[in-house]
Amino acid sequence: MTMAWPNAVSVEVPQKPRPPVILLAGNPNTGKTTLFNALSGEAARVGNYPGITVERRSASINVQNPNGSQEKADLVDLPGAYSLSARSPEEKITLEAILGLASNPVPSLVVLVVDAGQLARNFYLLLQIMELSVPTVVAINMIDEVSSPPSMPELSRCLGVTCVATNARKKIGITELRKAIDQALSSGTPPSINLDYPASLLGELGKIADALPESWQLTESRRRPMALWALTSIGDDELRDIPSELRLACENMRIVRNDHDLDLEIVHTRYAWIEDCLRHAQNKGLSNPPKRLMSERIDRVLLHPVLGFLAFALVTIILFQALFIGADPLIHLIEIGVSACQSVVVHYLPSGWPRDLLVKGIIGGVGNVVVFLPQIALLFAIIGFLEDSGYMSRVAFLIDRVMRLLGLHGRAFVPMISGFACAVPAIMATRTLERQRDRLLTMLVVPLMTCSARLPVYTLIIGALFPPSRLGGWLPLQGTLMVGLYGFAIVATLGAAWVLGRTVVKARRVPLILELPPYRLPHLRSIARMVVSRSGDFLREAGTIILLCTIVLWALLSFPRAPVHNGPAASAMVTHVAQSAQQLPGNARPQSDAERAAETKPIIERSPGAWIGRTLEPVLKPLGFDWRIGVGLVGSFAAREVFVSTMALVYGISDNDTGAEVPLRERMRVERKKDGSRPYSPLVGASLLAFFAIACQCSSTLAVIRRETRTWRWPAFLFAYTGILAWLTSFAIYQGGRLIGLS
Fold first, then answer.
1. Are both 154 and 27 inside the same structural domain?
2. Are 295 and 301 in contact (CB under 8 A)?
3. Which residue in 66, 334, 473, 511 has its CB near the most CB atoms, within 10 A?
């Protein structure tokens, strides 16, 4: 690199050599990530691959130079892939990383992780990597799960690359694998292989090789395997940045050879080589039948058309209850902690807007974020446990037939059911889906599920506007309404997935390809590390935006301010504060008369928030909503449950006055207009319930979708389509009710 100086003097600055890059590749469920942790000491860095929101795990490891000294190398854990053929940007990641395309560094070595019980199928990916002339070492993992382990020297001789037996969970064979990595890096010799493809195929393949873009900077030895990749990947795909000339060449070849199944010819040639290699090795004593009879017996139940769904229903109920009941004690502790912090600030700081900002804006805003943390941690712990045990693959396989009707596949069901707890961790759970289109579609419908943040709103509206009567003399009205809201959410979610999957995010239907791994005991340390990582992501990314929204909301509803008038109510409040202060440790003291005289409170009616509510009133009036509900809707954007406290604030009821929701419910129940009519009738309540059930009034949800998609386009679309759908549904309920005589 050359640096220019003022006097036209150039100085050559030596560049620091790039450390070697080692890629860890393999089929899904081969123990690749566990091996990554064993090699790296579990010191992974988590980022994203260039240009796409798929997580990239990397770490620095020590390797040995040819001269015997130690140096650092970058170890990168690639996404699981069955082959290098790719029809989506996510699937293309492995190929680009191996070839050093799309801002990826050129790798020095690929360590391919292979399931010892599935050698033939796993070697298909190995064969493709070898065709690209990339230096490779093979880790024959889960060696303990085969009854007769293969001979590593014989297998290495047959394949032409070094093979090492490993058991990543117990860290067996890690030392031998490190030595093989050092030797491969020192030699840098790429594997040599030449498959006997049909002559007619090779004759036409040159036209595709000529159409490969020069920007890929392919060596001559890689042009034929890349032409084969293009032929098996391009066509009815989601790939970006593919030159039109290359697409045309692939299309023309399929037209010219329409009497031949080109994909079958290629796959048959490769598997013929693999089978010949394994057959020769088996003659030398290679035998590795897997010990998976117990897994097969369990699958007879869990994959049964009837018993499998019953077992899944039981697991779902346990998961659902755990997210609510299991996290509740920690949520309660966090709420106590936040309340205690607010109480200390109230008693130790002088009154005024700075104290209110700290108490309600900052501490309250952080509390609204942290309160979700137990559910997030528990959700990812459960998902990690089910994934590690092997059951999640069975769930996806079992539910796939139903989900295909919606344009999704079985894996999307897990984030959807977790949306009952909170949409934020549910959206983060969509990372388990391979295709970007499937992740996006799931993210766009998950917010329709009835999350726990809606429950305070539902409780307020149902308790205030619907009498505790019984339908037909035996069915409780309030309980039936709550159950109906959950059923309505499920129907709305599935309906939205069906519509959006055929319009906005339409894509070709692909079969669900799943590996059904044997059942294993979950690796608790890996699960714990994943939970900590995901929880940290939530606090860093979503928490900052929720905090900002809460502060903005506080400001909108807190100015202008006016002095608090002395009177019976004020005296009672002063007495209450003084008594509370005596119970605090330290030097806390009650306020003086001068401080009490200087106290101010917001003038809600003249606040910018009230102005926003009155501005929204013409749009909300056809739904039966007044300006107070408009302000509540503005408040609920920070978090849905803020609707309750915002309504209390609008009515001039402080937290110290109420202490519970009952006074607010009573206030809404007895509220009357000037003409004596009720502004909040059961019909208005039904309209408001429908609006909250559909509208995405949650800034944290939008913020997380923005983080996952790296654009504001999809959060804006979600906010718009759910808002319009909520308005139309509420309009139909309210105006339809009025037409039949309800009020």
1. yes
2. no
3. 334
- Asked if 542 and 704 count as a contact pair (C-beta separation under 8 A), the reply is yes
Structure tokens at 426: 């549910």
**CATH number of residue 132's parent domain:** 3.40.50.300
Confidence of residue 433 (pLDDT cuts 50, 70, 90): confident
Identify the CA nearest to 35 among candidates 215, 217, 166, 124: 166
Q: Above 60 in pLDDT, residue 311? A: yes
CA distance 480 to 472: 12
> Sorting pLDDT into bands at 50, 70 and 90, what band is 577?
very low
List the structure tokens of 547.
């905090």
pLDDT, residue 545, reads 59
Residue % of the chain over a pLDDT of 90: 19
Q: How far apart are CA 380 and CA 69, in angstroms?
A: 41
Unique residue bearing structure tokens 């000294």: 69
- The residue range of the domain holding 224 is 199-282
Whole-number mean pLDDT of the chain?
Answer: 78
DSSP state of 652: T
**At residue 129, does pLDDT exceed 50?**
yes
- The tokens describing 408, both together, are 């999704």
Q: Are residues 120 and 244 both part of a single domain?
A: no
Instruction: Classify residue 495: in a domain, yes or no.
Output: no
Under 8 Å CB-to-CB from 344, ≥6 apart: which residues?
584
Q: What is the pLDDT of residues 492-535, one digit of tens each?
A: 988 898 899 888 887 666 555 556 677 778 878 778 887 887 78
Q: Are residues 90 and 233 in the same domain?
A: no
Cβ count near 600 (within 10 Å) = 16
Tokens of 716: 């804006």
Instruction: Please tell me whether residues 177 and 211 are part of one structural domain.
Output: no
Q: What pTM, to 2 d.p., does this model score?
A: 0.63
Taken in order 93, 99, 105, 107, is the CA torsion positive or negative?
positive
**Four-point Cα dihedral 599, 605, 609, 612, nearest 10:** -170
Q: Among 234, 251, 282, which residue terminates a domain?
A: 282
CATH of the domain at 276: 1.10.287
The residue written with tokens 């803020």 in the block is: 642
